[in-house]
Target: Phage integrase family protein
Amino acid sequence: MPKVAMLPEPTKRIRWLTQAQARLLVAASPKHLADMALFSLETGLRRANVTGLQWSQIDLGRKMAWIHPDEAKARKAIPVPLSEVAVTVLLQQKSAKWKKEFIDAVFVFRGKPVHQTGTLAWKNAMKKVGISNFRWHDLRHTWASWHVQRGTPLLCIKRARGMRNYGNGTTIRTPVSGSSGAVGTVS
Model:
């Protein structure tokens, strides 16, 4: 069993959403961003992995997606189990009226692959629901925080999303159980 050492509260900013905040933000976002945000919250993938996701990386029958090593920050392939919610998002994307047959990109807007997420529409959605100081990458922090709150071991979170091992351990900065900054190191 991995040894988990508690560290002092970090001085870096840690931002994550509650389930209620996430629901409000997704509901306030335009459809193409709402789907991407929901998929990010369900998978914990980085923005670049979501915006760059291709249909050839998805097996809906097995409920799996793959991030290729050359697309992963740690340069290792990442298997991505897909929840029912993530599968539903993908099925909606596959059947979207604006989807052009020749585009392999999963997430499209007006017939073109989505590359930018920090758009004015995203900022307006956050403002509408009273969320500030929040970046797209914080959806990944939210995913990890929710897992920690449900009791998922830190090592499992690390492995699930291809987090690199820095030195003797990997630090996952994520508040737990409403605390302002419990931090664990996985060794």
In short: The domain at 4-186 is CATH 1.10.443.10 (hpI Integrase; Chain A).
